[in-house]
Write a structure and sequence with these properties.
The protein is of the alpha/beta class. The protein has 4 domains: about 5-200, 3-Layer(aba) Sandwich (Rossmann fold); about 210-340 and about 445-460, Rossmann fold (3-Layer(aba) Sandwich), CATH 3.40.50; about 350-430, Arc Repressor Mutant, subunit A (Orthogonal Bundle); about 485-595, Orthogonal Bundle (Arc Repressor Mutant, subunit A). It is about 45% helix and about 15% strand. It is built from 24 helices and 20 strands. The strands form 5 sheets. It has a 7-stranded parallel beta sheet, sandwiched between helices. Strands 8-13-12-9-11-10 form a 6-stranded parallel beta sheet, with helices on both faces. Strand 3 (about 90), helix 5 (about 95-110) and strand 4 (about 115) form a beta-alpha-beta unit. Helix 14 runs antiparallel to helix 18 (about 425-445), helix 15 (about 360-370) crosses helix 17 (about 390-400) and helix 20 (about 500-510) crosses helix 24. It is globular, with a radius of gyration of 27 Å.
């Protein structure tokens, strides 16, 4: 379709408020408008969405965008609506049946030119029937690395798209977009789409305005010190990424206690809570947002000055995608990874949870097969099995790939055969690749090699000019005066008194006859392991559960600090037990709050 550059520029200016395309955006859009298939490899923050949003307003038919996350679809749609573009919609599980009926009708009537869908939508007979009744000009596969089994975020539903595209959407142009694809993943995307002559547009993955740093830390207390000092010394929009929801909530609370305005965001919060947190951040009502990986895609905030990874990510792909959310306005930004060796074990544990054992896959299949003609829902399997959601998803994807089960239109599962051989080789290979990506991430954190060169080399690009990293351009650490972690205070639950952490630790040791395990102290302070503690009557200690905002390793670090200060001593031959010393007793005698009941 021959389209004048004037028309493209007019749409860009009038509908999107921009004056000109970036060079690689223009190159991709020209291919799309000519009806050619393209794979666009553009860095995070480059504006990949414009490569299909602008053409969607000009092409004669419908543009279908396959997107992996409901939140990402909603963010994209909200952004279009803010710009006054109302011919876009989305189809996903968050939409009611009545509203789906309206949107299906609008798509069929040509009211909606741009439609966001999840890859699972292609398994719906109703949606497939709709596609047969409309003219699809462009099929966009966003986050295309999800197609590749070599990618860090492989989704089997993405892989299943290729067969349908070839058989039912032959007339549509295909645009695949990603910011995180190694050379091997790039080849696999093209092969999976069966488009050997696909045009590849590659932009430089380098973000010269971003400085990359790795800070080695011994424990969570040191992590907190770094976060607090960094954000207090330069109060500007920042994202702090954690590896778990619980950690995000606890860290955001500690940040607020230290005087930093912070919001928390993760997938476990309600939609209203997530939107409120995002709005607070985007409108600068808070200076920082603490989040799991659920936050970032589609967030309309270009002036993020700092991204801190509180925990080690599982891959360089994940790390660079999240770090790339800083400095989208082209101004200087800093991305810091806080590296604690313990985080490696956490990542390996998370990886193990994502992959089922052969025994778990077998159990899942037997449960589905034993139900006969009655469809089995995922919630039923989760109730009947000891397995994480992510691992069960992997098990079910494998069983579908082996053609042992089918998915019903409403998302339940039926066995195709009563028994069959379960070949775990593909799943084992995926787990091995996840492990290899983690090892690469560890090397990035540990090796004293230019951070930028490591990242770009991983993605198959070369850049000998480092514009800023802690290896090539070391700088003196900025620090601020912070209280010792053991001196932090919180409100005691129930009686409204303020309790000092160091005093609480010393009092617990004294109350328990001067000898107690370090882990037991931490459990008493946080209230964790309450069943065992109640059996021993330890839940009656005056500080039980009052310091639940702290993680166990922080409390253990505080105990170690008291040992180093001479207030506690480790008992020889009984480590990790500790005992109180004379100086610790004197400290307690001088504090009436420590003796209050």
């Amino acid at each position: 379709m021959a389209v004048s550059q004037f028309l493209l520029d007019s749409v860009l200016h009038e509908k999107f408020g921009l004056n000109e395309f970036r060079p690689k955006q223009r190159e991709v859009i020209d291919l799309v408008m000519e009806g050619k298939h393209a794979l666009a490899l553009l860095p995070t923050g480059y504006g990949k969405s414009l490569c299909y949003q602008v053409p969607s307003q000009i092409l004669p038919g419908t543009t279908i965008v396959v997107s992996p996350l409901i939140a990402l679809m909603q963010d994209q749609l909200s952004g279009l609506l803010r710009r006054g573009i109302h011919n876009a919609t989305l189809l996903n599980s968050s939409v009611s049946q009545d509203e789906l009926d309206i949107r299906f009708g609008g798509i069929k009537a040509g009211v909606f030119k741009l439609v966001y869908v999840a890859p699972e939508r292609f398994e719906s007979p109703r949606f497939r029937n709709l596609l047969q009744q409309i003219d699809v000009s462009l099929l966009v596969i966003d986050e295309a690395h999800c197609i590749s089994q070599w990618g860090h975020d492989f989704r089997p539903q993405y892989r299943n798209l290729s067969g349908y595209i070839l058989s039912h959407l032959k007339a549509a142009s295909v645009l695949a977009l990603t910011a995180t694809a190694t050379p091997q993943v790039q080849r696999d995307i093209i092969q999976s789409l069966n488009q050997p002559h696909m045009n590849v547009v590659t932009g430089s993955f380098d973000r010269p305005n971003i400085r990359f740093e790795v800070e080695a830390v011994a424990n969570a207390v040191e992590k907190d010190k770094h976060v607090f000092s960094s954000l207090k010394s330069a109060p500007a929009p920042a994202i702090v990424y954690t590896s778990s929801r619980k950690e995000a909530e606890a860290l955001s609370e500690r940040m607020r206690q230290s005087g930093i305005t912070a919001a928390c965001y993760h997938a476990g919060l309600s939609g209203d809570q997530r939107q409120r947190a995002q709005k607070l951040f985007e409108t600068d009502k808070v200076s920082a947002i603490v989040s799991t990986v659920a936050f970032g895609m589609g967030v309309d905030k270009a002036d993020i000055r700092r991204v801190i990874h509180y925990n080690l990510p599982g891959s360089l792909e994940s790390y660079y995608q999240e770090a790339g959310r800083a400095g989208r306005d082209g101004q200087t930004a800093t991305c810091t990874l806080l590296y604690q060796s313990k985080d490696v074990y956490t990542q390996r544990w998370l990886m193990d949870r994502n992959f089922p054992s052969a025994h778990q896959v077998e159990i899942a299949f037997k449960l589905i097969a034993s139900a006969g003609l009655t469809p089995t829902r995922m919630s039923t399997l989760l109730d009947d099995m000891d397995i994480a959601d992510s691992a069960l998803n992997s098990a079910l994807d494998l069983l579908k790939h082996l053609q042992l089960i089918d998915t019903t239109p409403d998302g339940a599962f039926l066995a195709r055969v009563s028994s069959g051989t379960i070949d775990m080789s593909s799943l084992n290979q995926r787990k091995l690749r996840h492990s290899q990506r983690l090892e690469q991430m560890i090397r990035y954190a540990q090796d004293n090699i230019c951070r930028r060169r490591q990242i770009l080399g991983y993605f198959g690009q070369i850049n000998d000019q480092c514009s800023g990293c802690d290896v090539c351009d070391p700088r003196e650490r900025v620090s601020v005066s912070l209280p010792k972690p053991t001196a932090r205070t919180i409100k005691a639950a129930g009686d409204g008194q303020t309790s000092n952490l160091s005093e609480a630790i010393l009092q617990i040791v004294l109350d328990l006859n001067g000898k107690v395990g370090r882990t037991t102290i931490a459990q008493i302070l946080t209230g964790s392991g309450s069943k065992k503690l109640k059996e021993k009557g330890l839940d009656q200690t005056p500080f039980f559960g009052r310091f639940s905002v702290f993680k166990q390793d922080q409390l253990l670090a505080s105990i170690d600090e008291l040992i180093s200060d001479g207030d506690l001593k480790a008992i020889p031959g009984m480590y990790p037990k500790v005992a109180i010393t004379a100086s610790g007793t004197q400290k307690l005698d001088s504090k009436s709050t420590a003796r209050s009941r």
